[in-house]
Amino acid sequence: MHQHASGAGRFAPSPSGDLHLGNLRTALLAWLFARSTGRRFLIRVEDLDRVRPGAEQRQLDDLAALGLDWDGPVVRQSDRLPRYDAAVASLVDAGLTYECFCTRREIQQAVSAPHGPDGHYPGTCRNLTAGQREDKRAQGRTPAIRLRAEKPEYTVEDMLHGSYTDAIDDVVLRRGDGIPAYNLAVVVDDAAQGIDQVVRGDDLLSSAPRQAYLASLLGLPVPHYAHVPLALNAEGKRLAKRDGAVTLADQRARGRTPEEVRAMMAVSLGMAGADDRPTTAELLATFDPNALPSTPWVFPTA
Ligand SMILES: [Zn+2]
């Protein structure tokens, strides 16, 4: 077992509702990756957007019920706004940004134009003159701050996916309403918290190159990545509330204990037989990242 005395892994949920079992399984994996390598395990609540009252506590209770523990106090992004502002300011000062006055609708229309790259910002505001920006302001628009990406793409190394390259795009760093953008906040926080191992769902794999690029521009270390397979419903879509008993509370209501839910997850990870009830310590003792299934978990919705 490798020791990383100063490193940390993390789980970073948005408190927008209850965690479903796919999220909780990702949390279990992040915990196993961190603990099996001697890292600290940190919880960060990404509450800059979409907060539902009470959700954070229920999420923490669910993690604890599954037997996951974490180090230090829970960190909330809403307490850390000056850090994000400082990071954006440093990129602005370095000439690596521009103001974007586009509405969501304008971007969608431009993106659906025949020659635009799929879903990417078409660069409408990249080269606005000072006069044009003044006109937009006079119309009452407050700009978002975008990254002026100097490369089309970037490559990261992922423990499960190997070398992975994807487009960077001129990502938003701060939204027009002043809220720091997700990609910026994640990069700033991971570095500030000493997180050197990022384990999360593979729906976020395509965000890793732009986050790693942002980290490099900010002079921050790039973490080790492991993007793990998601939980899907019977139709192959990402698991969601409507798919039945998908939360720990739903499972409890059906008479299934957290220990049994953990066992179900362990079976799905190839780490237990159908009748086993492994503890987290037992799972930790046998955890092998190289033996993880590479395909999604199709959640038994019956
Ligand atoms: Zn724009």
TrEMBL record:
User: Motif 'KMSKS' region at which residues?
Assistant: 238-242
Cellular component GO terms, alphabetically?
A: cytosol
Domain Glutamyl/glutaminyl-tRNA synthetase class Ib catalytic residue range list: 10-299
A Gene Ontology biological process term: glutamyl-tRNA aminoacylation
This entry's comment on the bound cofactor is: Binds 1 zinc ion per subunit.
Binding-site positions, L-glutamate = 10-14, 46, 182, 200
Annotated residues for binding of Zn(2+): 100, 102, 121, 125
Keyword field contains Mitochondrion: no
Instruction: State the needed cofactors, names only.
Output: Zn(2+)
Top enzyme class: ligase
Concerning its family, UniProt says: Belongs to the class-I aminoacyl-tRNA synthetase family. GluQ subfamily.
What's the superkingdom here?
Bacteria
Protein's organism: Rhodococcus tukisamuensis
Q: What are its E.C. numbers?
A: 6.1.1.-
What's the protein called, per UniProt?
Answer: Glutamyl-Q tRNA(Asp) synthetase
Functional note: Catalyzes the tRNA-independent activation of glutamate in presence of ATP and the subsequent transfer of glutamate onto a tRNA(Asp). Glutamate is transferred on the 2-amino-5-(4,5-dihydroxy-2-cyclopenten-1-yl) moiety of the queuosine in the wobble position of the QUC anticodon.
Q: Where is this motif: 'HIGH' region?
A: 13-23
Positions that bind ATP? 241
One example GO MF annotation: zinc ion binding
> Which UniProt key words apply to this protein?
Aminoacyl-tRNA synthetase, ATP-binding, Ligase, Metal-binding, Nucleotide-binding, Protein biosynthesis, Zinc
